[in-house]
Design goal:
By secondary structure, this protein is of the alpha+beta class. The chain contains 2 helices and 2 strands; from the N terminus they run αββα.
């Protein structure tokens, strides 16, 4: 079953894996914690300020290398040091 709307999920009793998360097609920001679904609020101004400063430092540090920092969370991340996560519990 394709999940295109967050209302198709059960935030109270549902238990989900990272593999489930990768298949979801809705735009709402959510996170999984021990298989439970939580809606994410917008980041605070302080959070955004810190993120931008950190991104600037990372950009300067990595400039000219084959590595690249990203400002948004990617649904699939593999930086070569970690095995991709396919199961959260």
């Amino acid at each position: 079953m394709e999940i295109t709307n967050i209302n198709q999920l059960d935030p109270l009793y549902g238990v989900y894996s990272y593999a489930d998360y990768l298949l979801w097609k809705f735009k709402e920001r959510v996170e999984l914690f021990k298989g439970k679904l939580f809606k994410m609020s917008a980041p605070s101004a302080v959070h955004q300020e810190i993120s931008m400063k950190l991104a600037g430092e990372l950009y300067q540090f990595l400039k000219g290398s084959s590595n690249m920092p990203f400002m948004r969370k990617l649904k699939y991340q593999n930086i070569g040091l970690l095995t991709p996560i396919t199961k959260i519990f």
